[in-house]
Amino acid sequence: MSGGIEMREAHFPGKAPIEAYGNGGFRFADMSHRGSLLCLPSGIHGWKATDARSLDLGDFQSVLAEAEEIDILLVGTGRDLLHLPQGLRDALREKGIAVETMATGAAVRTYNVLLAEERAVAAALIAVD
């Protein structure tokens, strides 16, 4: 038996609406997470992204791995709407994923609606304070 605490990557193995956001994190499924999130068909995962201006294709590898199960990806870019680089949008579109960027609050609300409609939706949500 080791004496340390084992830290694991944040992961909730299911789909759940986002109950709240702000203060640098999110609440969902009666849990809270500090930092950004990827909401994918495989579940809700912690995401290292902190600034939409620095996003690149590497930040979306988990999304691409589940592309066959995703029709639309909502990207919450923080407090303000920022557009993703065209090359990144094109790479996601080549995998059959439509991309919509919006401020994180709008992305959370839209994600919840599409999830309730049982649409093939995913979300990449940058945390806001």
From TrEMBL:
Gene3D superfamilies documented for this protein: MTH938-like (3.40.1230.10)
Superkingdom as given in the UniProt entry: Bacteria
Q: Which InterPro entries match?
A: MTH938-like_sf, NDUFAF3/AAMDC
Q: Which PANTHER family match?
A: NADH DEHYDROGENASE [UBIQUINONE] 1 ALPHA SUBCOMPLEX ASSEMBLY FACTOR 3, NUCLEAR PROTEIN E3-3
What is this protein's name? Mth938-like domain-containing protein
Q: What is the lineage of its organism?
A: Bacteria, Pseudomonadati, Pseudomonadota, Alphaproteobacteria, Hyphomicrobiales
